[in-house]
């Protein structure tokens, strides 16, 4: 298992990574409905205090990811993807055990810090995909990664809510078990994807930080601009977990069950698109075309979400917004073509660090305008303001992508 992956095993390895990513994100999705409830129990049912803790947890996790992702990305370039993926999965399992047996909120906090430090399995899996696929096939491979992400966040919350009914510790124990099975699966089955001759020769601390990652992005033609497109997309996408449950309940008076079904339907549409549409679209219009279609569709979808006066009109935006599933495959395909095999981990670490920034600033960017819009609803009547802000960000990303998302010559295929 320590030998680099052979040509005949590339497709199998891609399947292994897909399953690993599915289990990883599924366990994270389980936490969405139950972690705030557990924190509320520790706070004696005080919702206001719990909200402050939720912000602290989310911000701390984002800060840890911002500083540690570049380190883990460069580690994967130096010592291979496999050990970093296994370390990250193990960190996730430890985090869930902390949650399951935590006697106080501070124990939960320590678990989240530890997880934030090791949260690199998904980004390193992206470097793995770049290792085992030809440049012209990478968009399809990243589409499968997007589908794995969709599976986790579509079915994870439903699983978490169901398990919570039996015991408030059970979701965390189940997730710890999933992480352990995932780790064992990776330890015994997952081969290494980056051969020794394609690794960096030494671990350079000057590159293992956010500023060092920025230097990588600046050193390649249009790579920094593409990273900016990704940043704007992630920042816009952050509106969904930040306010959309509150927004749908306030504007359309939907019950929790209806909101859950709506989110699940949106997730299923995304999974289907990333599984069956990404490949043909990229083959027909290229990675640049797929990226632009996805960004423009997201802009239109968010505008429908923000302006729709009725729930039925809101639902009309779901199939349009689903085409945002083209963004990451197209973007990652363009970005991975611009770096060498021994820089793929550093690239994914830089992308994760930027995601950490969006996780820090995103909630305030959308919750504060939503709070203002709700307070002035009688006169302004614009509760969809956060969605319109997200639409503006995607419009800016579209304009930037038109300029920087230029195709590059295909580098030699992986050996």
TrEMBL record:
<keyword id="KW-1133">Transmembrane helix</keyword>
<comment type="function">
    <text>Resistance to tetracycline by an active tetracycline efflux. This is an energy-dependent process that decreases the accumulation of the antibiotic in whole cells. This protein functions as a metal-tetracycline/H(+) antiporter.</text>
</comment>
<feature type="transmembrane region" description="Helical">
    <location>
        <begin position="254"/>
        <end position="277"/>
    </location>
</feature>
<protein>
    <submittedName>
        <fullName>DHA1 family tetracycline resistance protein-like MFS transporter</fullName>
    </submittedName>
</protein>
<dbReference type="InterPro" id="IPR001958">
    <property type="entry name" value="Tet-R_TetA/multi-R_MdtG-like"/>
</dbReference>
<dbReference type="Pfam" id="PF07690">
    <property type="entry name" value="MFS_1"/>
</dbReference>
<keyword id="KW-0472">Membrane</keyword>
<keyword id="KW-0813">Transport</keyword>
<dbReference type="InterPro" id="IPR005829">
    <property type="entry name" value="Sugar_transporter_CS"/>
</dbReference>
<feature type="domain" description="Major facilitator superfamily (MFS) profile">
    <location>
        <begin position="13"/>
        <end position="409"/>
    </location>
</feature>
<feature type="transmembrane region" description="Helical">
    <location>
        <begin position="289"/>
        <end position="306"/>
    </location>
</feature>
<dbReference type="InterPro" id="IPR036259">
    <property type="entry name" value="MFS_trans_sf"/>
</dbReference>
<feature type="transmembrane region" description="Helical">
    <location>
        <begin position="52"/>
        <end position="72"/>
    </location>
</feature>
<feature type="transmembrane region" description="Helical">
    <location>
        <begin position="352"/>
        <end position="372"/>
    </location>
</feature>
<feature type="transmembrane region" description="Helical">
    <location>
        <begin position="223"/>
        <end position="248"/>
    </location>
</feature>
<feature type="transmembrane region" description="Helical">
    <location>
        <begin position="84"/>
        <end position="107"/>
    </location>
</feature>
<dbReference type="InterPro" id="IPR011701">
    <property type="entry name" value="MFS"/>
</dbReference>
<feature type="transmembrane region" description="Helical">
    <location>
        <begin position="12"/>
        <end position="32"/>
    </location>
</feature>
<feature type="transmembrane region" description="Helical">
    <location>
        <begin position="142"/>
        <end position="164"/>
    </location>
</feature>
<keyword id="KW-0812">Transmembrane</keyword>
<dbReference type="InterPro" id="IPR020846">
    <property type="entry name" value="MFS_dom"/>
</dbReference>
<comment type="similarity">
    <text>Belongs to the major facilitator superfamily. TCR/Tet family.</text>
</comment>
<feature type="transmembrane region" description="Helical">
    <location>
        <begin position="384"/>
        <end position="405"/>
    </location>
</feature>
<feature type="transmembrane region" description="Helical">
    <location>
        <begin position="312"/>
        <end position="331"/>
    </location>
</feature>
<feature type="transmembrane region" description="Helical">
    <location>
        <begin position="170"/>
        <end position="190"/>
    </location>
</feature>
């Amino acid at each position: 298992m320590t030998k680099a992956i052979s040509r005949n095993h590339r497709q199998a390895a891609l399947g292994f990574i897909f399953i690993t990513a599915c289990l990883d994100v599924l366990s994270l999705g389980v936490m969405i409905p139950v972690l705030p409830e557990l924190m509320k129990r520790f706070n004696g049912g005080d919702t206001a205090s719990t909200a402050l803790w939720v912000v602290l947890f989310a911000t701390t996790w984002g800060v840890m990811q911002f500083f540690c992702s570049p380190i883990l990305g460069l580690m994967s370039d130096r010592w291979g993807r496999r050990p970093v993926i296994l370390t990250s999965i193990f960190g996730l399992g430890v985090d869930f055990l902390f949650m399951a047996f935590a006697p106080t909120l501070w124990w939960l906090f320590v678990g989240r810090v530890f997880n934030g430090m090791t949260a690199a399995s998904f980004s390193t899996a992206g470097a793995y995909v770049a290792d085992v696929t030809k440049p012209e096939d990478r968009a399809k491979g990243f589409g499968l990664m997007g589908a794995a992400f969709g599976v986790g966040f579509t079915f994870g919350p439903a699983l978490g809510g169901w398990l919570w009914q039996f015991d408030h510790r059970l979701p965390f124990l189940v997730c710890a078990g999933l992480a352990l099975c995932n780790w064992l699966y990776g330890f015994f089955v997952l081969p290494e994807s980056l051969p020794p001759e394609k690794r960096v020769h030494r671990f350079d601390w000057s590159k293992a930080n956010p500023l060092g990652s920025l230097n990588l992005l600046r050193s390649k033609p249009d790579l920094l601009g593409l990273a900016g497109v990704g940043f704007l997309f992630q920042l816009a996408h952050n509106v969904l977990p930040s306010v959309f449950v509150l927004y749908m309940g306030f504007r359309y008076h939907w019950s929790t069950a209806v909101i859950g079904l709506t989110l699940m339907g949106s997730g299923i549409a995304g999974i289907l698109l990333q599984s069956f549409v990404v490949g043909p679209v990229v083959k027909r219009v290229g990675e640049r075309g797929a990226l632009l279609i996805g960004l423009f569709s997201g802009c239109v979808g968010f505008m429908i979400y923000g302006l729709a006066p009725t729930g039925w009109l809101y639902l009309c935006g779901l199939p349009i917004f689903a085409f945002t599933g083209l963004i990451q495959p197209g973007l990652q395909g363009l970005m991975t073509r611009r770096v060498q095999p021994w820089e793929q981990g550093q690239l994914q670490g830089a992308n994760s660090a930027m995601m950490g920034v969006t996780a820090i600033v995103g909630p305030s960017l959308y919750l504060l305008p939503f709070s203002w819009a709700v307070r002035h609803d009688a006169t302004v009547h614009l509760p969809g303001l956060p969605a319109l802000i997200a639409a503006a960000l995607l419009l800016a990303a579209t304009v930037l992508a038109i300029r920087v998302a230029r195709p590059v010559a295909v580098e030699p295929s992986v050996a």
